[in-house]
Structure formats: structure tokens, C-alpha cells
Amino acid sequence: MITEQLTDTAQALVADNKGLLAMDESVGTCNKRFAALGIPQTIEMRRRYREMIVTTPALNESISGAILFDETIRQQKTDGTSFINVLIDAGIIPGIKVDIGAKPLAGFPLEKITEGLDGLRSRLREYSEMGARFAKWRAVIDIGSGLPSRGCLEANSHALARYAALCQEAGLVPIVEPEVLMDGNHTFEQCLTVTNKVLHTVFDQLYKQNILLTGMLLKPNMILPGLDCDIQEDTQAIAEATVKCLLSAVPAAVPGIVFLSGGQSAELASTRLNAINDKFKSVLPWALTFSFGRALQQPALELWKGDESNTEVAQQALHYRAKCNRAARKGEYNDTFKRQV
Q1: Which of these, 64, 226, 290, 295, has the minimum number of CB atoms within 10 Å of its CB?
Q2: How far, in Å, CA of 260 to CA of 139, rounded?
Q3: Phi, psi (5° rounding) for residue 47?
Q4: Can you list the alpha helix ranges (DSSP code H) found in 184-310?
């Protein structure tokens, strides 16, 4: 019964050319983005911002699921309706980020391990009772001189696999997110090599921990040069390398790959997702869609600025970016699409 539930939910999250909205920023991250725009960093302003997001009209036309944070999943609209119920009523599947962040990895001073396994079983049970149907855990991998180490890759991959096992035990679809960071001056080729190694290590651990592949989703980075690299490859090269990497490492049984934006601008993230689907969608075994956070939210946040009178225009911006990414999922994010919207 749980197996069928997991598979059905995973498939629903990537159905109908839709994607995921990641609104799971930690308090610290959300406050940092607020501070940059002069928005007060209070729990009430965070609640108002999230209310603006979840009440965006017709968001479900492009968004199948929303990833929440522990603070957000417990919050309500001004009228007392829980955000969980707002999403469910809109036909959007609620999910929850369950890791507690990347911490220094003992023995590896330049690398990090994502923590949060302690007490996870009981937290997953609580989130499930609240209405969540999937979860997310993010591991962060740096590229540098001698990095990533084998110890870092194996520790983070094992943690991802144990998290996934606990999720599936609780009936929640795990989104497995091993992110190779864009920070630094590493080359395009280095990103390809490291991402390939990361994904092979992750799936080796998922296999060892008896993870049901049809009841999970993968959230990887695209193959990109470091932000400070002198050579920045074009969109077509990025699309080809990303698909090459995925084909070499990701089993066909996985129903969907939901790319993270990873610091890309809203426009670049959509353009690159479009290039991947435009050329390869018809020949790949998995759905290729989006699970963007900043690349979906940032234009809306910059318009909202904490002022309730800006709510409508901010919601229009969020709805537009969601439509752009649904078009990219179909390989239709082009000049014709932009003129139509």
C-alpha cells in the first residue's frame, strides 16, 4: 500500500508538465533576503510573504507541489486558514524540508555534512499527520583543490539514503538533493566530473538502503562552470553535458528529475531548462522539470518589498515565472511564448 502511495505521489509531482516551488528557506536565509530589500526581518513579515505566495491565483496551473519550511508549515493566513490547507485546496501537493542544514564535517575542515537524522522518524510522522506528502534533504558539495573528498561524498550520500529510507517508511516521497555548488572558479569539465561522481555515489547508497526508486525524485544541479570561471559555456553545451551526466548515473526507474536553480537568475534557469527539454525530452526515461526557489520567487519578492499594496503585482510576477518554467518543461520557452504572455 505504501509502495503504491509513494509511486503515485512521485508521479503526480512531475505530471502535466508542472514543477515544484521551493519556498523552504530557513529563517536566516529568508531574513537575509528581506534585509537586502529593506523588509523587516520578523516572523510576521515572513508569514505575510508566504501568504502572498500560497494565495497567488492560478499558481496550480504550473506548480504541482510546494516545499515548505518548519516555520511555514505551521503558519496560517490572516483569516486563520493553514497554509497546508490553502495549498491542498488549490490542488498543490505540500512538502517539507527536513534537514537542519550543512555543518562542518569533522575530519574534513573545508567540507560540510548535512545534519538532521536524529529524531527524523518522529518529525516525519508529525509532518505526515499535518498533510505533507513529500520531503526534501539537501547535501552541499564544493569543488576545489582536492575537493570533494571521498569521505565527504560517502558521508553525505549515506545521510541522503538514510533520510530517504525514513521518508518512505513514513509514506513520504523523498526528494534527494545532492547539490554541487556553483561557487568558485572551477571549470565546466570539473563540474561534469564531480557531479557524475556524486550521482554515482548517491545511487550506490540508495541501492544499499533499499530505496524504492519509483517512489523518489532527484533534485540535482545542472552542469555549470563556477560563477568565477573565465569561460562560461553556452546554453546548448550545458544542456548536452547535463543530459550526458544524468544518463550515465540516474536509473530509468526514477520518475522525475527536478532541477535546482542553485543561484542562477530566473531567466537563465528557465532558458537552460528549456534547452534540455527542447532537444532531449522525447528520448529520456524521466520527466525533467524544475524545483526552483529563488529563480521563481525573487522577481516577486523584489516587487512586494513587504508592502501589502504590492501583493497583486508580486503575485502576477510569481505566476508569470511559474508559467515560464512550465513552458520550459515543454521546450516551449521561446520568443513566441514570451509574446503570448
Answers
A1: 226
A2: 12
A3: -65, -45
A4: 188-208, 235-249, 266-280, 294-304
List, for residues 201-259, the tens digit of each pLDDT value: 999 999 999 999 999 999 999 999 999 999 999 999 999 999 999 999 999 999 999 99
Q: Which of 18, 219, 233, 323 is catalytic?
A: 219
Of residues 177, 179, 233, 323, which has the active-site annotation? 177
Whether the CB-CB separation of 293 and 321 falls below 8 Å is answered with no
Supply the pTM of this predicted model. 0.97
pLDDT at 335: 73
Whole-angstrom Cα distance, residue 12 to residue 256? 10
| Number of domains present in the structure of the chain | 1
- 244 included as an active-site residue: no
Active site residue 219: yes
Cβ 271 vs Cβ 235: under 8 Å: yes
pLDDT at residue 336 tops 90: no
What value, to the nearest 5°, has the Cα angle with vertex 265 and ends 259 and 266? 70
Could you read off the pLDDT of 174-191 as tens digits, one per residue?
Answer: 999 999 999 999 999 999
Cα angle: 184, vertex 226, 181; to 5 degrees: 75
Q: Which domain holds residue 96?
A: 2-340
- Is 70 within 8 Å of 96 (Cβ atoms)? yes
Supply the pLDDT for residue 132.
Answer: 98
Pair 74, 120: CB distance under 8 Å: no
Using alpha carbons only, what angle is made at residue 270 by residues 288 and 322, rounded to the nearest 5 degrees?
Answer: 85
Which sign, positive or negative, has the C-alpha torsion 177, 182, 185, 189? positive
Decide: 222 and 199 in contact? Cβ < 8 Å: no
| CA–CA dist 214, 256 (Å, integer) | 9
Nearest in space to 100 (alpha carbons), one of 108, 82, 112, 86: 112
**Calpha distance 96→159 (Å, rounded):** 17
242 sits in the region (left: phi over 0; alpha: psi -120 to 50; else beta) called: alpha
